[in-house]
Design brief:
This protein is mainly β. It is built from no helices and 11 strands. Strands 2, 4, 5, 6, 9, 10 and 11 form a 7-stranded mixed sheet that branches. It is globular and about 40 Å long.
Length: about 120
């Protein structure tokens, strides 16, 4: 099982980025996937997940600003991040299979991608 996150970068406050999570080793359409992040000196925080039905769940810290979606044909899960804030600066990871806002909801985490939001 492999999950690889892409699309991180440097953005100013209020800007947007879209992250991609490419899944290999299993058929994405059969599983739920989540996104987590870890800021310097802080614990990993799960912020969004999407079930096979398309139902989504968000942490309060990103609700209304981030949108998770999936393209099963491309084996890819996306995280659209709008109205970014400096406190969103973190390494972002995709995780699976599973859906929930607890670290225990997931078995695998992929290699992360760094998002830096300047003030």
């Amino acid at each position: 099982v492999q999950l690889q996150a892409f699309g991180g970068g440097f953005v100013q406050t209020g800007g947007s980025l879209r992250l991609s999570c490419v899944v290999n080793g299993f058929t994405l359409g059969r599983y739920a996937i989540g996104w987590s992040r870890q800021a310097p000196g802080k614990e990993r925080e799960t912020i969004a997940c999407i079930r096979t039905s398309g139902a989504t769940q968000y942490s309060d810290s990103v609700k209304g600003r981030f949108t998770i979606s999936r393209d099963n044909a491309r084996n890819t899960v996306y995280l659209q991040m709008n109205n970014l804030k400096p406190e969103d600066t973190a390494v972002y990871y995709c995780a699976g299979p599973g859906c929930g806002l607890s670290r225990q909801d997931y078995d695998y985490w992929g290699r992360g991608t760094l998002v830096t939001v300047s003030s």
